[in-house]
Design goal:
The protein is mainly alpha-helical and about 130 residues long. About 75% of the residues lie in helices and about 0% in strands. Helix 2 packs antiparallel against helix 4, helix 4 packs across helix 6 and helix 4 crosses helix 7.
Length: about 130
């Protein structure tokens, strides 16, 4: 066997070994990106309120849906690096609507002990997920 063929065979053998090693260990899951975190919060809040993601994002003005929507927007803002504009886009709202939801939940939490307790529990659980 010529020396060139031996070198090429050695290089191919090394590449095969590298590929086999890479395939042997399972890939680690990708880190959650900011939109994925916001969607996860949306899904968790929707599920806790017996709603679907589509219902929370939708246009409904039913009190229980609006409450869940506002809570999810607030939690996304409070626990991620997402800005109001990013959150508004994910929730299919304009920036003023998302800002209102954040202020509304914050103000309710300051004036209503039950809301404060609920928000604190959500924040504690969501911050432990990260």
């Amino acid at each position: 066997m010529s020396s060139i063929l031996r070198i090429e065979l050695a290089e191919l053998t090394a590449r095969v070994a590298t590929l086999e090693a890479a395939l042997a260990k399972p890939p680690s899951p990708p880190p959650l990106t900011m939109p994925m975190k916001v969607l996860r919060i949306l899904d968790l809040v929707a599920e806790a309120h017996g709603l679907t993601r589509e219902q929370v994002i939708g246009k409904s003005r039913l009190g229980r849906i609006v409450r869940a929507r506002h809570l999810a927007i607030y939690l996304a803002y409070a626990t991620t690096s997402a800005g109001v504009q990013d959150i508004a886009q994910i929730f299919e709202r304009d920036q003023s609507g998302a800002s209102y939801a954040i202020r509304h939940v914050r103000d309710l939490a300051e004036s209503d002990p039950a809301t404060r307790k609920e928000v604190d529990a959500w924040l504690k659980n969501l911050l432990n997920l990260n």
